[in-house]
Specification:
The structure is a single chain. This protein has a domain of 40 residues. It is mostly helical and 91 residues long. Helix 2 runs antiparallel to helix 3. It contains 3 helices and no strands.
Amino acid sequence: MAAQRTSFEKLQRDRAKKAKAAAKREKRLDKSTPEESDELTPLEAEPGEELTAAQLLARVEEIHRLFEAKKLSFEDFEEQKADLMARISVD
């Protein structure tokens, strides 16, 4: 018995899925490119206003990236990381 061939509609769906995944991947790569600087960005918060946990974790990721790229000393890395982790509130 011969194998059933795929239909044209299924091929179109598969191609559409691949195109959507490629577009999503490109968007994600474009989004991460501006963050690839060698300096820390200032924390954006008004005086007296707390940053969200997501913003603090993004800052921790940035500090890790700079430390791994040897742009930040271990002492500065540990100090900044401890400060950021102390600011994160767990509900």
